[in-house]
Each structure stands twice: as structure tokens, then as C-alpha cells.
Write a structure and sequence with these properties.
Blueprint: H1 4-22, H2 28-35, H3 39-51, E1 55-60, E2 64-69, H4 71-108, E3 113-117, H5 121-130, E4 136-141, E5 166-169, H6 175-183, E6 191-192, H7 195-203
Parallel strand pairs: 3-4, 3-5, 5-6
Antiparallel strand pairs: 1-2
Helix pairs in contact: 1-3, 1-4, 2-3, 4-5
């Protein structure tokens, strides 16, 4: 069974191999910025890739390097990419199924118009799931940053929103914070969320001790 740490490391190595294939002169600092990790972490990943035969390094003056994918590196990149796509599509299917269950329940209650509240891929999943139902998404709102149109659905001002039967939470990252900000504008009884998000909120923040 793959652990979360292993999955994160695989994703980082996949991105590094992708970037090296696209640009052999990419710097470790650029890689660190793109991955959002410390420079030392990228250096450790690069050393691991060299040690396992995935890449080769050619030094160029002054203190510059070129990175080359080996045949083994190309094969590993393909394997990691395929795994990433399988995992992503699996998450997409689970998200769609969760929203479809919610929308079926809301339709039985006579709900027709909703506003989606979110800031990541789950918001797009919520819009996509609505296309096969009688539910209409009349607006989107990001409670954690500046709102913008998503897939043709206009952003709304929660202080003067369009008419809607429910506000649906569609965010996994910082979900509790998003829920609390939404409650400042909308009574809890008018807020709904798919079961996949409800489970995350019930678990609460992870104990870091």
C-alpha cells in the first residue's frame, strides 16, 4: 500500500522528470519554486534520481548544469504519469458521485438553484455534476480569496447574491475556515455539502503533535 508520503514524493519526482525533459538547463531553484518546496528538498530528489539511474548531470561553466533523462528515467516518468492519471480520475469519479448524491437529495426537497462555494478543483466538479441534474448553479463564491468566474458561472457577492435555494460548500482545502466564513452570510440550514466534504469537516484538523 502506498503511503501519503510516498505518493507526495512520487508526484515531486514526476514533476522534476517532466521539467527536465522539457528543459535540460532548468535550475534547482526554478524546480523548488514550481514544486513549492525547499531548495534542499529538490537537491535531495535530484540526488535520488541520479543514484537510481533516472537522470544524468553534465556540468557546464560557470557552475551550471544540464540534466538528461536516461531511458530508465523516461520509463519511470511514464509510469508515474500513468499512476497520477489513475489517481486523479479516481478522485474525480468519487467527487462527481458525491455531488450527484447531494443533488438528488436536494432535488427531492424542491431545490432548483444553488450557489457553489469553493476555491479549488471541487468547485469545478460541483459544476460538472450539476449538468446531468435539474439543479442550476447560479453563481460561485470564493470565501478565502478573490472570486472569479468558473466554467461560465459568474462570481457573486455574498452580501447581495442572486436568488438561490441553497449554498453548497465545494472546497476541501481549509474547508472549516470556508464554512465559518459562509456562515457569516448564510444561515446554517441553507448550507449543504456533499458527503465527501462532510467527512473531512467532521474529522477536523489533523493533530500535528
Amino acid at each position: 500500500m502506498t503511503t501519503r508520503r510516498e505518493a507526495t514524493e512520487d508526484q515531486a519526482i514526476r514533476q522534476i522528470l517532466d521539467r527536465i525533459e522539457a528543459n535540460e538547463e532548468v535550475s534547482q531553484r526554478d524546480l523548488a519554486d514550481e514544486l513549492g518546496v525547499a531548495l534542499g528538498m529538490v537537491n535531495a530528489y535530484i540526488k535520488r534520481c541520479v543514484r537510481t539511474g533516472l537522470i544524468k548531470i553534465h556540468q557546464m561553466p560557470p557552475r551550471r548544469y544540464k540534466y538528461y533523462l536516461t531511458p530508465q528515467g523516461f520509463a519511470e516518468k511514464s509510469r508515474l504519469t500513468a499512476q497520477y492519471l489513475r489517481d486523479s480520475f479516481g478522485a474525480l469519479r468519487r467527487g462527481l458521485a458525491s455531488f450527484e448524491r447531494l443533488y438528488a437529495d436536494l432535488a427531492e426537497q424542491g431545490v432548483e438553484r444553488i450557489i457553489l462555494v469553493g476555491d479549488d478543483e471541487m468547485l469545478e466538479v460541483g459544476i460538472l455534476a450539476s449538468l446531468s441534474t435539474g439543479i442550476t448553479v447560479v453563481g460561485v463564491w470564493n470565501p478565502l480569496a478573490e472570486s472569479h468566474e468558473v466554467r461560465g458561472v459568474a462570481a457573486v457577492d455574498p452580501a447581495s447574491p442572486p436568488e438561490a435555494d441553497r449554498w453548497v460548500l465545494a472546497v476541501l482545502k481549509d474547508g472549516q475556515q470556508a464554512f465559518e466564513r459562509l456562515c457569516a452570510f448564510v444561515p446554517p440550514e441553507r448550507i449543504a455539502m456533499p458527503d465527501v466534504l462532510r467527512l473531512v469537516l467532521l474529522r477536523g484538523p489533523r493533530d500535528k503533535t
